[in-house]
Amino acid sequence: MNTVKIHDKVFSKTIPNEEICNEIKKLADRINHDYAGKRPLLLGVLNGCFMFVSELMKNLDIECEISFIKLSSYQGTATTGVVREVLGLSESIAGRDVIILEDIVDTGLTMQRLLETLGTRNPASMEIASLFLKPARLKVPVDVKYSVFTIPDRFIVGFGLDYDGLGRNLPDVYDVVE
Ligand code: 5GP
After folding, report:
1. Architecture of the domain spanning 3-176
2. pTM
3. Which residues have CB under 8 Å from 78's CB, separation 6+?
4. 155 in ligand 1 pocket by Cβ < 6 Å?
5. How far is the CA of 105 from the centre of ligand 1 (A)?
């Protein structure tokens, strides 16, 4: 299945599942190394992160905990820049080594706002791991220490990412066909 139609748009396959999983394994190796002897708190940003988190967790062999928050800043294929916290954090992050797990950093506004919010809660350290990063779209300087794929300025779906609610279940990643 090299193309899929979702709502009004056609998408073509660009990154097969096997490649995504291989690259996430390499990220897990880096985190295993960088956080050896620590017990990081991974913080997944729902909804898009769920497949990334699942694949990453399977490859982490250090002690680690996972929790989820939910934010929303995107509608359709155009960012609104409006960040809304829907589900908050129930546990304390004070003194914890936090790794934020995001599906994609686009303008960076979501991550900038999240770092500001979480920074007031005194974590020992805080890093971002994003499955995808679109450097050409960044509007604010956000330090993404761990990014799995750097991609051009194109709208993608699959492996947890949606187009208006659909496409999250696709195991591969697809680019919109203009
Ligand atoms: P930012 O605040 O960095 O502009 O937006 C981040 C959010 O925008 C992501 O968590 C994701 O929900 C959405 N987003 C940005 N680019 C894409 C894309 O290419 N595909 C999909 N499905 N969502 C995107």
Report:
1. 3-Layer(aba) Sandwich (3.40)
2. 0.93
3. none
4. yes
5. 6
